[in-house]
Amino acid sequence: MKLWRWILGLVLIAALAAFGWHWVAVDPGYVLLRMRGIQVETTVLVAVILLLLLWGGLTVLWRLLRWPFGALSRRHRRISRQRLGDGLLALAEGRHGEAERDLNRASRLDALRGPALLAAAEAAWRRGESARALESLDQASQVAPQAARVLRARVLRRDGKPAEALALLAPEADTGSLTPAGWRQLALAALAAGDTRRARDALEPLQKSGALGTRGYTALEARVIGASLNAAPDAAALNALWSQLPKTQRRSTAAVEAYARRAVALGMLLPALDELESALRRDWSPALVEVYGALGGNDLEVRLRRAEGWLDAHPNDAALLSTLGRMCVRLQLWGKAQQYLQRSLALTPSAAAWEALGDLHAGQGDAALAQRCYRNALAFVRGEPIEALPQEQLPGRPDTRSMAVEERNEHGVPRLRE
Predict the structure, then answer these.
(1) What is the predicted pLDDT for the residue at 416?
(2) Cα distances (angstroms) measured from residue 390 to each of 335, 369, 383
(3) Would you identify the CATH topology of the domain 79-143?
(4) Labelling 57: which of 30, 127, 371, 395 has CA 20 to 30 A away?
(5) Which segments in the chain show pLDDT lower than 50?
(6) Where in the chain is the domain with CATH 1.25.40.10?
(7) What is the pLDDT of residue 391?
(8) Which long-range contacts (C-beta less than 8 Å, at least 24 apart) are formed by 377-380?
(9) How far apart are CA 156 and CA 121, in angstroms?
(10) Distance between CA 212 and CA 359 in Å, rounded?
(11) Contact indicator for 410, 390 with CB cutoff of 8 Å
C-alpha cells in the first residue's frame, strides 16, 4: 500500500509541475525595480527564486552568528544534566554533602530547577540541616509548588511537627487536589497528630490511585484503622466507628485485633469474642488466635474448650498450641499446659511459648527452671542460642510429627492430598 501511495503522490506532483510550468511559460510576468538610478528588470519566476535564495542566505548567516552562543548553551545543559545525575547518585549512596552541592549547581538550568532543588532539599534534610532543606523548598515552590509542599510536609513531620504538616496539606485535601504522595503524608501526619478522622479520609484516594501498591496500602490502612479504634473514648463511639467502616476494612486481621483489644479495655468482652470467632471461622489467623487467648474475662474455661475444638482442623498450628498452653497456665492446668507448650516449641519455637513455659514452672514453684525459660525467650528475640532444658524435667518426648487432616469438598467427598 505504501508503494502505491508514493507512486500516486509522485504522479500528482509531476502533473502539478507540468501544469504550473505551462501556466508560467504563457505569461512569465514582469518585475521592475528602480532605486537611486539603478533599474533592474526580470520575470516574476526569477524574482521569486532570488528572494528564496536571499532568505536562505540570511538564515545561514544568522545561524553562523548564533553558533558560539548555542555551543555555550549546549555545554551548560550538558554539564547541568551531568551534575543532576551525579547528585542523585551521591544521594542514593549516602554522600549527602556532595549530593547537595551538585544538585544546587544543576538547579541553575531552568529546565532542571524544580527536580534538582527538591532532591537538594532531601539531601540537606538527611544531613540534619532542616533549615537548609526548607530554604531549598522555598525556591522549588516557585517552579514545582505541589511537589515542594508535599516534601515540606514530610520534612515537618519527620522533625516532630505533624500539626504544621497537617495544616500545610489540609487546604488541598479539602478540595481533593492532593497528589498521591500528598495523601500519604497527610495520613501519616494525621496519625502523628492524633487526628484519625483525617487519616481515614486519606485512605480512599490512596486506594484509588494505586500509588502504594497492595502491600503498602494494606500496611497503612491497618495503621490508620488500628489507631482510629484505639482512640475511641467509649463503647458507643467504638461501636459507631466499627459499624461505619467498610466491610473490607472490618475483615482485616489488624482491624479485628484492634477492635477486640479496645472493646475488652472498654468492658465489652462478648462483642470482642464474637468478632474474633467470626473472623477465625471466616479466615484462620494465628495472630487472632493469640489475641483470643490473651483476652481477660471470667469465661476462660469456656474459651479453652472452644479453642481446643479448633485443634481438629489445625493440629499443627504452633500459635494455637502456644495459646492453649498459656490459657492452661492461667487455669493452673499444668500437665496440659506443658504438653501444648512443648509441642508448640517443637513445631515452631517462639519467645511467647518460652515465656509461657517459664510462667508454668514459676507457678509450680521451680524458680530456676522458670528463669531458664525466660532467658530462652530473651535469647530467641536476640537471635542467640537456646539453652536446652534438663531431660529429667521433660515427662516424655513430644510428638513433633505433623498430623494429617482429612479434607473434604463441598459434597463431603474426601480430597486426595498431593
Answers:
(1) 47
(2) 17, 9, 21
(3) 1.25.40
(4) 30
(5) 392, 394-406, 408, 410-412, 416-418
(6) 298-392
(7) 62
(8) 377/351, 377/352, 378/351, 380/349, 380/350, 380/351, 380/354
(9) 12
(10) 43
(11) no
Q: Tell the residue number behind the cell numbers 534534610, with chain if given.
A: 125
Pairwise CA distance, residues 379 & 397, whole Å: 23
Residue with cell 508514493: 6
- Burial label for 218, CB within 10 Å (0-12, 13-18, 19+), is middle
| Residues contacting residue 175 through CB under 8 Å, at least 6 positions apart | none
Confidence at residue 192, expressed as pLDDT on a 0 to 100 scale: 92
Q: Measuring CA to CA, how many Å separate 304 from each of 80, 257, 315, 325?
A: 70, 19, 15, 10
Q: Tell me if the domain spanning 298-392 has CATH number 1.25.40.10.
A: yes
What is the per-residue pLDDT across 309-327, written as a single tens digit (0 to 9) for each? 998 888 889 999 999 999 9
Secondary structure of the chain as H, E, C letters: CHHHHHHHHHHHHHHHHHHHHHHHHHCCCCEEEEECCEEEEECHHHHHHHHHHHHHHHHHHHHHHHHHHHHHHHHHHHHHHHHHHHHHHHHHHCCHHHHHHHHHHHCCCHHHHHHHHHHHHHHHHHCCCHHHHHHHHHHHCCCCHHHHHHHHHHHHHHCCCHHHHHHHHHHHHHHCCCCHHHHHHHHHHHHHHCCHHHHHHCHHHHHHHCCCHHHHHHHHHHHHHHHHHHCCCCHHHHHHHHHHCCHHHHCCHHHHHHHHHHHHHCCCHHHHHHHHHHHHHHCCCHHHHHHHHHCCCCCHHHHHHHHHHHHHCCCCCHHHHHHHHHHHHHCCCHHHHHHHHHHHHHHCCCHHHHHHHHHHHHHCCCHHHHHHHHHHHHHHHHCCCCCCCCHHHCCCCCCCCCCCCCCECCCCCECCCC
Taking only the tens place, the pLDDT of each residue in 13-45 is 888 777 776 666 667 777 777 777 787 777 777
pLDDT at 389: 81
pTM reported for the whole predicted model: 0.70
Cell numbers representing residue 132 in the block: 537548609
The reported pLDDT for the residue numbered 378 is 92
Kindly report, residue by residue over 198-234, the tens digit of the pLDDT: 999 999 999 988 888 889 999 999 999 999 999 999 9
Is residue 183 a contact partner of residue 153, using CB atoms and an 8 Å limit?
no
CB atoms within 10 A of CB 200: 20
